[in-house]
Amino acid sequence: MRRNTSRSRDWIGTLEECYVIDAMFELPCKIVNVPQLNDEQVIAQISSYFKEYAGFIAMGGLSDTASKGIAGIKLGTTGVYLLIVDPHYTGVPSERQQVFDQSYVRWMHVKEFPAGAYNLCFILQK
After folding, report:
1. Helix (H) or strand (E) holding 105
2. What is the DSSP letter of 100?
3. DSSP per-residue string spanning 14-83
4. What Å distances lie between residue 74 and 19, 27, 77, CA to CA?
C-alpha cells in the first residue's frame, strides 16, 4: 500500500482491507504486522496458513508501497518464494502467458522484497 503522506482518501491500507472484507463479506480476518518477510517465524506462519485455509493474504508495506497479495508459498532448496498477485491488472489478457510476462502473477524470492515492515491480512474462512 502507498504510504499516505498527503492525507488523501484515494488509497486504503491493509488494515482497511481487513475491515471491508469482514464487514461486506462477513469473512473474519486477522492483521499481522511483521518486521521482515524473510523471518523464519513469518515464513512458518504463511506456510501454516496455506495448509489450514488455502486462502489469500493481502499485504502492504511502509517502504514497499505496491499493494499485492500472496496466493501461495514454495519452500525449496534455493529458498522461499511467494506467489504474488498484483491487483492492478485490468482487462482481459489475449493469452494466459501475458499475465505472467507482465509480472501480474509471479514467484518472488522473499529476499526480493524491500526491507521493512509489512501488514498481512489473513482471511480466516475455510
Report:
1. strand 105-109
2. H
3. HHHHHHHHHHHH---EEEEEES-TT-HHHHHHHHHHHHHT---EEEEESS--S-EEEEEEEEETTEEEEE
4. 29, 26, 10
Cell numbers at residue 48, please? 501454516
98 membership: H or E segment, kind and range: helix 96-101
| 53/107 Cα distance (integer angstroms) | 20
Q: Is residue 4 helix, strand or coil? A: coil
For residue range 51-104, list pLDDT tens digits in order: 999 888 999 877 666 678 999 999 989 999 999 998 766 667 777 776 666 667
Residue 19 phi, psi (nearest 5): -60, -45
pLDDT digits (tens, 9 = 90+) for 101-126: 666 788 999 998 888 889 999 998 87
Phi-psi region of 79 (alpha: psi -120 to 50; beta: other; left: phi over 0): left
Looking up cell 495448509 gives: 51
Q: What is the pTM of this model?
A: 0.79
